[in-house]
Automatic annotation (TrEMBL):
<keyword id="KW-0540">Nuclease</keyword>
<dbReference type="InterPro" id="IPR005135">
    <property type="entry name" value="Endo/exonuclease/phosphatase"/>
</dbReference>
<feature type="transmembrane region" description="Helical">
    <location>
        <begin position="12"/>
        <end position="30"/>
    </location>
</feature>
<keyword id="KW-0378">Hydrolase</keyword>
<protein>
    <submittedName>
        <fullName>Endonuclease/exonuclease/phosphatase family protein</fullName>
    </submittedName>
</protein>
<feature type="transmembrane region" description="Helical">
    <location>
        <begin position="65"/>
        <end position="84"/>
    </location>
</feature>
<dbReference type="Pfam" id="PF03372">
    <property type="entry name" value="Exo_endo_phos"/>
</dbReference>
<feature type="transmembrane region" description="Helical">
    <location>
        <begin position="36"/>
        <end position="58"/>
    </location>
</feature>
<dbReference type="InterPro" id="IPR036691">
    <property type="entry name" value="Endo/exonu/phosph_ase_sf"/>
</dbReference>
<keyword id="KW-0812">Transmembrane</keyword>
<dbReference type="GO" id="GO:0004519">
    <property type="term" value="F:endonuclease activity"/>
</dbReference>
<keyword id="KW-0472">Membrane</keyword>
<feature type="domain" description="Endonuclease/exonuclease/phosphatase">
    <location>
        <begin position="103"/>
        <end position="297"/>
    </location>
</feature>
<keyword id="KW-0255">Endonuclease</keyword>
<keyword id="KW-1133">Transmembrane helix</keyword>
Length: 312
């Protein structure tokens, strides 16, 4: 009898290890059905993965090693997967526009970096008068939203304001009269996690609503459309996929390996939240990140434009 109970206990222990080893991979099937809970988990996923692996080994000793390795591997795939190159094509020769997006955290110390980025079109989040005064002389055309979203668009091409900030647009929508004209949705979507003051800039539900409204604008656009700026949407979460997978936009930063753009106090969370997304048979080339002195973000830039023949 004692031997039979021992065998039953061994089977239960083995099944527990198998279940714990398989469980992390359910993330990929459940992350969207989890809704807002999945959105929040996606933000903290790197830290949650490492802490969870440590707890498994601590509580289960040797039996926890395999589940911990599985958790670390699944977490790594979930975090790094959206950084892998996913080239949808090259920009047509002679048709590229260099676009940069940067959250400057209101720091005028970022102005030299912004100007040296050499962008034809520049999207600035957390713009302020000192930053604007430093950038404006380098660009003949600009549109600035000072109420709420603090987004500025600076351009070497004429701009026409199509839509200003509103309840479902935390930024600007402008028509850019580039050699191949396009609509630009320049955004600074409020942060859907706790701030240092113990509250939300926006709840996860509100953040999701704003990104869904952006996706609807993209879907309605009859021509080329670009979404750029600080979306505060990590690339491993549902809101990013609503623009890339659901609406079919191309992530211009993934023409090569991408990487996190949130730095300083949020670096442990490996968040890539500053984006350059293109739609309407447009592609992206030559992406890169660049430093923004004293900002808690890195800037992003890419050459964007209509795809070369047979691509996109």
């Amino acid at each position: 009898m004692r031997g039979e109970l021992h065998r039953r206990g061994s089977w239960r222990a083995a099944l527990t290890v198998v279940a714990l080893t398989a469980a992390p991979w359910a993330w990929f099937a459940l992350r969207d059905p989890l809704g807002l809970a999945g959105d929040v988990l996606a933000i903290v996923l790197p830290v949650l993965t490492v802490v969870g692996a440590g707890v498994l080994v601590w509580r289960l000793r040797r039996a926890g090693v395999l589940p911990a390795v599985s958790l670390l591997l699944a977490g790594t795939v979930a975090v790094v997967g959206p950084w892998a190159p996913d080239d949808a094509g090259s920009v047509r020769p002679g048709a590229a526009v260099t676009l940069a997006a940067a959250n400057v955290t209101g720091m005028s110390s970022t102005v030299p970096a912004l100007r040296s980025a050499g962008a034809d079109v520049l999207v600035v989040s957390e713009d302020d008068p000192a930053v604007d005064a430093g950038i404006a002389p380098a660009y003949p055309f600009r549109e600035v939203a000072s109420n709420g979203s603090h987004v500025g668009v600076y351009s070497r091409f004429p701009l026409r304001l199509l839509e200003g900030p509103g309840p479902d647009l935390p930024g600007l929508r402008v028509a850019v009269a580039a050699p191949v004209p396009f609509d630009l949705i320049a955004l600074h979507v409020p942060r859907p996690w706790f701030t240092g003051r113990g509250g939300y800039q926006a709840t996860p539900a509100e953040h999701h609503r704003l990104v869904e409204a952006t996706a609807a604008r993209v879907a309605r656009s009859p021509g080329p459309v670009v979404v750029a700026g600080d979306l505060n949407s990590t690339d491993r979460a549902r809101d990013y996929r609503s623009l890339v997978s659901d609406v079919g936009m191309v992530d211009a930063m993934r023409e090569r390996w991408a990487a996190p753009t949130q730095v300083t106090s949020w670096a442990l969370f490996a968040l890539r939240i500053d984006h350059v997304l293109v739609g309407g048979a447009w592609c992206g080339d030559a992406p890169r990140r660049f430093d923004l002195p004293r900002s808690d973000h890195l800037g992003v830039t890419a050459a964007i434009g209509p795809c070369s023949a047979g691509r996109g």
